[in-house]
Amino acid sequence: MNKQDRQGKLVVISGFSGVGKGTAVRRLVEDFDHYAVSTSMTTRKPREGEIDGVHYYFVTNEEFEKMIREGGLLEHAGYVDHYYGTPKAFVDEMREKGIDVILEIEVQGAMQIKERFPDAVLIFITAPSAAEMVKRLIGRKTETDAEITGRLRRAIDEAELMKKYDYVVVNDGIDDCVRELDRIIVDGTGGMPFYPAFKEKYITDLRRIIQERLSKKSK
Ligand code: 5GP
Q: What is the CATH number of the domain that holds 159?
């Protein structure tokens, strides 16, 4: 086996807010022994319960910019006033050992990875419908009303970029979703191809839901 055969894959998972990405990634690592998840670096402040080195490496702007200058990040992006990036060393180390590394990152970072690593597998996770996504977002009770609306607006932009991903996975139940993700990563089967009608309907529904939320608020 040559070196390339032993190298672990680079897997990017993105998706709309509230579609269960975090749970799916956690389950992949728990259920299979050939995955590792990269811990990102960020300049945003930790939320309650978040641990430095576990959920993120929390750093200052200066530290983050130094990391960029020194070439220590595989990709980085600005998201709502803060930097987020993927430390290179961990990813290289795991891949050398033949472990597939998962990056749970937003779309700008995903595009940088695709350009730098054309073999990376890019997967976009979506809810079955915009209505279902909103139901889950409201149900998890971690965002205010305004934040939910903000995330729905952002989802419209993200939906436009869905077509750049290699696979789209509909999370219609976590067990099936995790099995499907593993199949895609291992042998490229599973997922649905991107099709414009799904995206168009999703965006139309998101716009309608945002409008309804705003008009309800102003009443
Ligand atoms: P949050 O602040 O909610 O933890 O994350 C905000 C967004 O940043 C999410 O979409 C998350 O996937 C993304 N993100 C987290 N880590 C990284 C990273 O290392 N690089 C990029 N490009 N995005 C990241």
A: 3.40.50.300
